[in-house]
Write a structure and sequence with these properties.
With 171 residues, the protein is α+β, with helices and mostly antiparallel strands. 20% of the residues lie in helices and 29% in strands. The protein is built from four helices and seven strands; from the N terminus they run αββββαβββαα. Strand 5 and strand 6 form a beta hairpin. It is globular.
């Protein structure tokens, strides 16, 4: 009896295992970025809330799988802080199986992203792409590390709250 009461309480109170921390993923396939369309018509990156006890990277993988049916590979952290983590990842297929959370999806060229109605957070997450208009995503963020020196391909993310956070999309 106690177990059934507990289940009913959880369902009634809508208790969630989610934390306030979010993982989002820039998924690249054929030099296009996958965006999911919300029921309000705005587009966003795949991802969502990290669960209690879950790492940010595992939360990103789980959320992408739940929202798209895709297994994301080669996840690389772009930037992050106490409330939000942004990754870059790749997929082998573009066979998206959309969840009930969204009503559609698009694979979009970098130059066309800001022509779409984006969610507030996606505008922030992708704002660094506005600084790199003429080249492709892969060209912009090739791994060119030179310790302590400013260089092309290294961009501080606008509005990032991580001290010294650097936004790099690396291969």
């Amino acid at each position: 009896m106690f177990f059934n009461d507990l289940v009913q309480y959880i369902l009634k109170e809508n208790i969630s295992n989610d934390t306030n921390r979010v993982s989002k993923v820039i998924i690249i396939k054929d030099n296009k970025i996958l965006l999911l369309q919300n029921t309000n018509g705005k587009y966003e990156l795949p991802g969502g809330h990290i669960e209690v006890g879950e790492s940010a990277i595992n939360g990103a993988k789980r959320e992408v799988k739940e929202e798209t049916g895709l297994d994301v590979m080669n996840l690389k952290k772009i930037t992050g802080n106490n409330s939000r983590v942004l990754y870059k990842g790749k997929i082998n297929t573009n066979n998206v199986i959309i969840s009930d959370e969204h009503k559609g999806y698009k694979f979009v060229l970098q130059k066309d992203i800001f022509k779409l109605p984006l969610s507030k957070w996606s505008k922030k997450d992708l704002s660094f792409l506005k600084q790199k208009e003429k080249s492709t995503i892969e060209e912009n963020y090739a791994d060119k590390k030179v310790k302590g020196k400013s260089r092309p391909g290294r961009v501080k993310r606008a509005g990032a709250s991580c001290k010294g956070s650097v936004t790099e999309l690396r291969r």
